[in-house]
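Standup notes
- HV: blocked on the assembly model, inputs below
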Amino acid sequence: MTIQHREAALPDGAAVAPDQTIDHAASDTSGRAPLSCTRIIEAAVRYVDDNCLDELSMRRLGSELGVEAMSLYRYFPSKAALLEAVAGRLLRDLQLPDDANADAWEEQIRAFAVSFRAITREHPRLVPLLSAMSPEDAVPAGIHERMVGVWRRAGLSETDSRSAQRALQSYLSGSSQWHQESCMGRAAEHDFRYGLDVFLDGVRTRVAEAGGAT
Amino acid sequence: MTIQHREAALPDGAAVAPDQTIDHAASDTSGRAPLSCTRIIEAAVRYVDDNCLDELSMRRLGSELGVEAMSLYRYFPSKAALLEAVAGRLLRDLQLPDDANADAWEEQIRAFAVSFRAITREHPRLVPLLSAMSPEDAVPAGIHERMVGVWRRAGLSETDSRSAQRALQSYLSGSSQWHQESCMGRAAEHDFRYGLDVFLDGVRTRVAEAGGAT
DNA sequence: ACCTGAACACCGTTCAAGT
DNA sequence: ACCTGAACACCGTTCAAGT
């Protein structure tokens, strides 16, 4: 039951222009450019980065954009939908595997993991948003499938591939929580690598067993 | 900056009796027993189990207990403090290692992991609460130290032990999110074991290398 | 077409007051 | 000692209205 941006489906069936900011300098906060989904999403990310998730309200976000809260409802049907779009926006920066490279599975997994980590380190205050969403909603199904493909090509069975990807995602999501306030850096980067290495060691063993069969 | 139950520290310095329900049948919801921290915490757990975290408000929790919202502030200084106490209550059921058993490290780790998982499976709607807290606050430092002790006795170095425990905690916390609504059971139990096994395999290798040195 | 104002049904929390 | 009432400064969201 993924909530979506409102696209058409307005009371009178009128379409909504999702994105009309052509000007690249659109990120000037002065704020006379017309509203758009992306402008709203970017303002939300900025607001949470500068303050915190709990402090984000439709009213405050509106005034950040020089607009009444109610105007935002032309672009998103609810606050929940807006937040989901914000999460989607963040995960756009995930580094996805390249289907061509057959055997570089470990680099591809690592690149994905590190890119996820980079996102949460850049936006620690948005971490609670990602973890409030169920993992299935957080990482779109398409991405999940592509990653399962990497595990398959590495040599794992279909079920093991799905389990491995879910385990990786669990680990990434859990690790990101250490970025929240109050448990500052604390050798977090080293710990992250350690866990990832241990996990990949374990998988490598299984791949060797399944593939070479000694 | 862990928030605590109010213990004394009332405006006039009066102490608060945290727990006077002697009667074991105290969980009858009829609700004329006097308020107490534990009674409030239990009602909160029940309420979230039956509804969801977002719907828990001081006003509603109060009326669940047959009392005005404001009465709760005699026992907890804020809603945040109450929620933290709820989390603490849940984690009371963690199965902690027994310092005696020197070499059963793997069973002890597994027991801890499985008990964490049992808690989140019993209370899926409280998972967002646990993941909203930083991992350091969620699992009290004492528990963390005892688990680090297990890794040490397994044969890991001090730094590796801390990293391993943090990785395990990350994995457990991340895995629990699959219990949230909308991504129903979905072979979750199998996936959980798989990730845990892979992780422990990886650690076992390191223990062997460090200990036996081939 | 896009934005606003006023209103509704809620919040967490404070404080003075009841018994 | 323990609980309440009224109030404050907020919420998300609806809907009719402005331009």
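- HV (later): unblocked. The interface with chain A takes residues 1, 128, 131-132, 134-137, 159-160, 162-164, 166-167, 169-175, 177-178, 180-183, 187, 190-191, 194-195, 197-203, 205-206 of chain B (CB under 8 Å). The two ends of chain B are 46 Å apart (CA to CA).
- Next: hand off to the docking folks.
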